Amino acid sequence: MRLHETWSHNSPRLVILFVIIQAQRALAQQIVSSTAAWSSQIVAFWGAIIIASQVGKVGTGGTSVFSSVRASLRARSIANALSRGNWFLHSGWSNGSMRMDIAIVHWQSASDLTSLARRIAMQIETFGDKWQVLVLGQEVKKSDFEKKENESVIHWIKSPRSERFCGAKVKSTGENLFRLREHDLVDALDMLKQTPPVPAKAIVEELLRREDTRASRPTYLSEQHNEMKANSGQLSWGYIFTNIDHQQSPFLALKRWTGPNGIDRGARMVCATRMYLLVHLLIACAVGLMAAATGRGLAVWLMTVRPTISTMGGKDVNGNDVLRSLLCMDEGSFQYETRQGSRFQAGDVVVQPMGWWQPAVAFAIPSLETAIILAGWFYGALNAKRLEPSGVVGHGMLWLSIVVGLSLCVRALFTLRNHDKGRLVGIWKESDFVRFTVGTESLELQLSELQRLTSDSPINLIATILADEGTEADAAIRVVESLLRLPVTTTLLEHLVATEIMKFKYEGDKIITKAGKPISPKSESPWIQSYCCIALVMVSSCVSAVYAYYPLPRWSKLVTEVVIAVSAVFFNSVDLVGSFMHEKETSICFMVAALVTSSVWYVGLESAG
């Protein structure tokens, strides 16, 4: 009875006490949720710096899809040019500082040509952002093939800017190896200019007789000149293959082979593509779940997959995209040493045709990755509840992120403005060579136009040899390869393209006009789009601050995050595939600003796991 009376007497007080305790718990839970949500901003802040350091590489699935589309379009251009008997040149404003890479294509049918063009296009897209690549070749009948190694293949050779930069040496003496010398080229031109001119078949036979086919080895690092050592960070076929021995990766391996008596040595690259695809998709699923648990930071999650793969063995895979690198280098062979009489030379690379499924995988996997992350983020964004800033952490991280984002955007604007005020160098005069700026990424060189513009030059000689139907195709290609290895040949081709085809006019070493029109960095770079991206991120940063203190509609957050993500993907794509890229400082400032701004949203989820 006394207990009942005590409860009845004190029940109002107990109820009030219970309500107060629950309210305090709820308030504490709200503060904890708020603080936890904004504490994750610290992780996003430093994560943005790490992610943005991947400048020059594919950062998102959207950039990878865009790059795959570019590679497909370039493959079609290469196949069309070669099928018409023309050449294809890939270059830019500062490509090929030490060499010109040359892809010699041997094909038997139209389907083979298409498959080979796919391989070249993907290799250029993956490795050749700083390369200058010349693609040419000839259709060869099956009766012309004598050995298995001469089937439909791509034979990669290189033409150094100077004879001092030769990448192959005679194995017995250590002297630079050029199979033909400049005096051989001069004699062949004299034969072509005789009246009547010597037939192309006779010229080919004479040059074949003069070829120096002694056993070769690569130039060792200790034998390279300072200019080559200074540019050793730029990718080359030799670096791509030999780096596997120094930087182990679970996705790459070399299967070495030797010829009879150990005279020939080489390696074939074996890529664990299926294992990589499994790792890639699992990481994408994990990132998608994290995006669903936060409901914010779309740009951060889109750029998280590849840095994560980098820590799991992807950083030692060369190229700007791990997946495309594995697809385009699988089964590629590198020549370490060659025997006497071999048609190959040390440093050459031979690759096979590429099937249709490899470009399809390069397009489908990043598309699926992007769809998974978007789905996870969209689910979280729809279920996220707006929270208000609270405490030092909440208000402090909010305004710290906004100030950092706006400051970096302003810094990016200044660096971008300075970049637009620069100048385009047209003639690069080095101590041992002169290099001409081509200034275009993709260009089909008409063989008939080359012959018309160069009546007495090595380019006309090469075009005449390739166009002659009476010359055996394999012999013609072999002589053309030896001629293209000479630095003078590719230098003359560059000069021809710059002055006669692109029609650049110079003032000293500076390009001032292109086909009679004034030219400047502003006329060539996508500066308007870049300014728009920076402005959109600045506006988005302000919107996120308003959203934290004022209940804007939910769709405003969704739209703003999508705008930031699209801006980041576009900026990354320009840095990767643009012929006139941003400066590294500009890219880092913008990417960090975009990623920090993307995660400045005061939201939380219930039962997120």
From TrEMBL:
It comes from the Eukaryota. The chain crosses the membrane at residues 275-302, 360-380, 392-414, 527-550, 562-581, 588-605. The keyword Acetylation does not apply. Residues 1-28 form the signal peptide. Keywords: Membrane, Signal, Transmembrane, Transmembrane helix. This is Integral membrane protein.
